[in-house]
Design a protein that fits this description.
Elements lengths: L4 H8 L5 H13 L6 E5 L5 H10 L6 E5 L10
Parallel strand pairs: 1-2
């Protein structure tokens, strides 16, 4: 199971670069700065996605799943 740009971009609705995200993850895992990883379980995020993320950060000190909360946003501009 791999994390890829296409599926990530579909979920976050913006352009992304998974390689840059993974570089940041590796910096955090190798460093001495306190951190925590979170995954928002949003529509489109499945069990395979969560397992792929968990595999990439398997040595993380803290990993949380958080609930997605949809907001009704009205744009009056």
């Amino acid at each position: 199971n791999n994390i890829n740009d296409k599926s990530y971009q579909k979920i976050v609705c913006t352009k992304s670069n998974i390689e840059n995200i993974l570089k940041s993850v590796n910096i955090l895992l190798a460093g001495k700065v306190d951190y925590e990883f979170r995954t928002t379980v949003a529509p489109g995020v499945g069990k395979k996605d969560i397992l792929a993320i968990a595999k990439k950060i398997k040595n993380a000190k803290k990993y949380f799943l958080q609930e997605f909360k949809a907001l009704d946003i009205i744009d009056n501009s």
